[in-house]
Amino acid sequence: MNARLPRVLDEVVSRPTWPGTLPRPIERRNLGVDYDTTWTRAPWARLVRRALVDNVTRPFVAVATSPKVFGREHLDPLEGPVIFAANHSSHLDTSIVLSCLPERFRRRTVVAAAADYFFDRPWKAALWSLALGTIPMERTKVNRRSADLAASLLTDRWNLVIFPEGGRSRDGWGQEFRGGAAYLAKRCDVPVVPVHLRGVRPVFPKGGRRLRRGKVELRFGDPLWPSDATGPSGREEDARRFAARIEESVALLADEAETDWWSARRRAAAGMTPAFRGPDASPWRRAWALPASARRTRSSRSKSSAKPW
Amino acid sequence: MRALLVERLVHRFAAARVAALLTGSGSGIAIGPLRLAEIDPPERPGPLWHRVTPLLAGICGSDLATLDGESSRFFEDIVTFPFVPGHEIVGVVTDGPDAGRRMVVEPVLSCVVRGIEPLCPSCAEGRTGACERIAFGNIRPGLQTGYCADTGGGWSDELVAHEAQLHPVPEDWSDEAAVMVEPAACAIHAALAGQVVPGERVVVLGSGTLGLCTLAALRRHALPSMLLAVAKYRVQRRFAEDFGADDVALPSELGRAVRRVTGTLALASTAGRVHRLAGGADIVFDCVGSARSITEALEVVRPGGRVVLVGMPGVLRVDLAPLWQREIALFGAYAYGTEDVPPGPRSTFALAFELVAETQLERLVSAHYPLERYEEAVRHAASAGRRGSVKVVFDLRRENPAWRRTAAPAARKQRVLRNENKLETSA
Amino acid sequence: MSPRPGFVLEVDRSTPPTLFWHGEGFRFEQLPEGARVVYPPEPLDALSDPEAAVRHALEHPLGDCPPLSALLRAGMRLTIAFDDVSLPLPPMRRPDIRQRVIEAVLDLAAAAGIDDVVLIAALALHRRMTDDELRHALGDRVFDAFAPHGLLLQHDAEDPGALVHLGMTEEGEDVEINRRAAESDLLIYVNINLSAMDGGHKSVATGLASYRSLRHHHNVRTLQHSRSLMDRHHSEMHSSNWRMGRLIKNVGVKIFQIETTLNLDMFPSQFAYLQKREWEWSLADRAGFHASRLALERIPPRLARQIFQSMLAPYGVTSVQAGEVEAVHDVTLENLHRQQLVAVEGQTDILTMGLPYLCPYNVNSIMNPVLVACLGLGYFFNLYRGKPLVRAGGVCIMSHPTPWAFHPVHHPSYIDFFEQVLADTTDLIEIEKTYEQAFATDPWYVHLYRTSYAYHGVHPFYMWYWCGHALEHLGAVIIVGGDRAAVRRMGFKPASTLADALEMAEDVVGPNPTITHLHAPPLLVADVS
Questions:
Q1: pLDDT value at position B419?
Q2: Residue (of B35, B26, B84, B90) closest to B57 by Cα position
């Protein structure tokens, strides 16, 4: 078929070419880390988000994961802005955490999300920042824009949900906690509440194609204040040590989740808490040692031998 | 005299084409451009011409394509209407010194026939099939007897032929053997055009008259290491095995069969049907000439191989990407002329006489029809394979034509043959 | 109620019609008076705690062998080989016994801190297993821990780098097996002994071998002298495997063999009547049977195949033993005979059998005519110890629709074998001499075997050789209800009904022949005296 558009239509639809003799300004793309999320914190946007979270996200999470929440009492004494640092194994984590936060926190919370994954296209950026209140954050190196934005939001009494691992777990065990949360907590003098999610990986793991219903547990831990600890030389501890402290708290919550509070405490006291990052062994042994709550369930039917019927 | 006439009636050609598309080849015969008419016999265009009374005249695939309206418009300039079809002719010369003798007519109307001097370069070399003066000379444009308004054609009671076109038939030959000479010549010319090197692996697509004759010609004039025929119907399979095919495959099994005998890998196979091969046969003779057959030929020939297009094609839609990527040579083979065989050049017709005698090609003539039953004849020819036949001919003999004899003797013989074969395979 | 042993029934006028398997369907046939029917024993009681039995076997091995936990130490190379998808038949319900055994072994390996562990499916020249089939056999936990890291392998008999030649036996037989298995510090083999043919030295010597090794016992002469394949003491094929197995041991490959036996609980509850004696069918059984039979006759073959191939057997484990190969296998055979042996007196003129929809080589696939012949003449004919059930020169009548249909992905070389080789000749020695080499080395079949899910190019030949003993022994083979062209192509005679078949058989064996019907599956071994 050699049909072409009628001439008039063709001239309307085709974009004119820029003359070669004229310099062309560089456009700043409103994507990735540079995406401006201020509009999502406008009153109308917050109303829309609240409606979405209350009527779509929370019921969906309730049906898909039936979450049980432990440790809400640790949040009672807290008023001001809080950083929630959680372990990360699934895309569902954000929705689950938001659904389980008490209302006074939930209505004024932003979530740090990977800029390269959630903000790479305009429609994705708009969707996630409106529906979940995400702000772009660089995974690896610290970006001044995102750090400044997060700090200003915290100062402005916004709560922040962040996943210090930087990405979802690959093999079911945790990854090293990065220093972003610790740095922000120190900079704005804001407490960090460790959060542990158990049983999300079987529901929708990294690389999973189907959602399976399951039972999820969420635990809030003791809040950690950045100015609490002092380092060995008497000076305040630095962000990295604080990050390690946060990771230990999450590991303690994980141990509590698998066994019980008391034996977890005793092991923590003896320094015997099972490693958050799993045993230092070959991949099969790491997989073998995973607790059932972190094992993937049977994956969907792979396109194996072509049956002729 | 009676003659079947093709007239230039565009609407009839179009109707026949639609019918052919909807209900298969040959089905448009009743609404097509062919009709039985009473016309005057053709005048002799010159002193070297003779009158010929046909005895048998064959129906060829190219005739069917013309009647279906499927012929390419390319032929319009080298065909003159109204013409009497029929170019596979054995008849009796009725005037001149050889009056009363049976002759086979070589239909190509080349320079000599057209009275053109000096001969064109092709005719000078003996390649009359490639004559460059096909639309000029004493007679009107027409590539062969059977496509020219001035010469008449085989499907009638009388035609005229130049003495250069006449080849005497040996006394002990049957008429059926003589009528197979022209198709055999086409086949020999095609087989030799392929230039098969000894040891090459050859595939012949299509097992109608042309395919089977090509098979016989290849067996006689070339030394392939492997000769694979593709035949859909049982009668074709029997003849293919008889004429020397090493292996006979069904069309749906072609890819797998070629893969098996060449030991190559396959590039693509869907649900068990192997179709694109990584290697393949060295040369493929396409004796069908449809889009599907050319596509299949390109699928099973090896990179750098040759595909000889023997069957007459029309306007086709074929994906030529394999041709380009695998550097395949696709070339046509038409009619006959002079062939370069050891020890020296010989006319294709002379070789054809030999082939008919050696291989007993008269066995391929399966049905005879009088001119009046031309509609049945064309339908039968169009579905020959399915109906257990190969070549269908018009029988114009006044005494004892075959169609007047009851079918019994010939049919009985065929049945016995089939039983014999069955006993062999079940042992 | 303790399970009843198998027995031989004498058919009289009050005997109800007998159930014949007929591919993906059934037929009721009235056997003539005086015919015998060999019924298999009822399923034995399964072990109540198979996992405990597995752990016990690993800690208390047989033969001169320390417990498994003593053999495992950190830093060693461990390879675990297991039987492929051709066992058990039909596939068993989850958890498969291989899953239980391998999980127990891996628990010990994890405790010992072994990092270098590889699992190998011992396919020999069978097709590779799909991910679903591997998951079914091994369980999700094992699959997810090993497959993503490339530690779950399928034996590749056409990869020269993955094979190692260990030497030749005293009879000049090459022994070439999987390199990783041979060069490990410990090779653990997990076997399921469904029939008396499996297990013992055959597990490693055949399951992990290459064509160069296999052709020494997978050939016409050896198989014609295997009388029978279920009786290793009178089977040339097993003698060869035993020689190879002993060479493997002497060369220094350390094998810890774990063998298991299953009871005959082959059919799920809705098809339980298939295991019951016909005169003991309840009303529900009869209704269920006729409903299935009528439905199966009306639905297209594809759907019928799907239904049957998705059927899982509720097998119970009857024994687990581990340790040294020969010691273990003797105990395994004892347990197997305990379940399957039936005493039969005397041979018969005509042997009839109904062939089911499944053989080891068409799991999740189509049963093509070559496999029908192999199942009937290769397996069922050989279900004997002592003498064949049918006398020399007798007739074997098999009931199967024998469709002219082939699975294009699993059995590509079978199509060419059926169309090219069998069209030329059905004589075993001719076939072996003229065609085997070409098919075994054809690069396309090798490519499909290695990268797709196809049986090796030479496999259809082995199926045909499997019938060697039967073809030598019998006077004629008749297939009831099969595709006529397919049956004739194989050199057998087609018949539409059993009555016609018996008539045709009388031409061969004479008037008033004795008839015995083999009521299998479930499997049995006839101890013929």
A1: 36
A2: B90
Instruction: Report pLDDT for C336.
Output: 93
pLDDT tens across C113-129, in order? 999 999 999 999 999 99
- C-contacting residues in B 200-259 (Cβ below 8 Å): 253, 256, 259
Element (H, E) at B308: strand B301-309
The CATH 3.40.50.11440 portion of chain C extends over 50-262
Q: Chain B within 8 Å of C146 (Cβ-Cβ)?
A: no
Residue ranges with strand state E in C101-156: 116-122, 152-154
Element holding B304 (H helix, E strand): strand B301-309
**Among C92, C193, C194, which Cα is nearest to C133's?**
C92
pLDDT mean across residues, chain B: 88
Give the one of A295, A301, A304 whose C-beta lies nearest to C141's C-beta. Answer: A295
Confidence band of B32 (pLDDT split at 50, 70, 90): confident
Whether B416 has a pLDDT exceeding 70, the answer reads: no
Name chain B contacts of A308, Cβ cutoff 8 Å: 271-272
Q: CA-nearest residue of chain A to C405?
A: A308
What is the distance in angstroms between the Cα of A205 and the nearest Cα belonging to chain B? 34
Query: Could you give all domains of chain A from N- to C-terminal order, each with its CATH number?
Result: 38-294 (3.40.1130.10)
> B316 with B298: CB under 8 angstroms?
no
Give the mean model confidence (pLDDT) for residues A137-143: 80
Please, which residues 479-498 of chain C have a Cβ atom closer than 8 Å to chain B? 488
Partner residue opposite C364 with nearest CB, options A282, A301, A307? A307
At residue C297, the pLDDT reads: 86
Q: Residue A229's pLDDT is what? A: 57
Q: Using an 8 Å CB-CB cutoff, list chain A residues near C116.
A: 282
Q: Tell me which residues of chain A have a C-beta less than 8 Å from any C-beta of chain C.
A: 281-285, 287-289, 295-298, 301-302, 304-309
Question: By CA distance, what is A306's nearest residue in C?
Answer: C409
Measured between CB atoms, does B198 come within 8 Å of chain C?
Answer: no
Check residue B405 and give its pLDDT.
66
Instruction: Kindly write down the DSSP assignment for every residue of B238-296, as one continuous string.
Output: HHHHHTT-SEEE-GGGHHHHHHHHHT--EEEEETTEEEEESS-EEEEEESS-SHHHHHH
Taking residues B378-400, report their average pLDDT. Answer: 90
CATH classification (class only), C50-262: alpha beta
Kindly indicate the confidence band of residue C188, based on its pLDDT and cuts at 50, 70 and 90.
very high
Residues of C in contact with B253 (CB under 8 A): 419
pTM over 0.90: no
Q: How many CB atoms lie within 10 A of CB C432?
A: 18
Subunit contact C135:A309, Cβ cutoff 8 A: no
Reported ipTM:
0.77
Query: For chain C, where do the domains classified as CATH 3.90.226.30 start and end?
Result: 7-43+340-528
Q: Which CATH class is domain C7-43+340-528?
A: alpha beta
Mean pLDDT of C437-442: 94
Nearest to A309 among C116, C132, C302 (CB): C302
Q: How far does the CA of residue C309 sit from the closest CA of chain A (Å)?
A: 11
Closest chain B C-alpha to C150 CA, distance in angstroms: 27
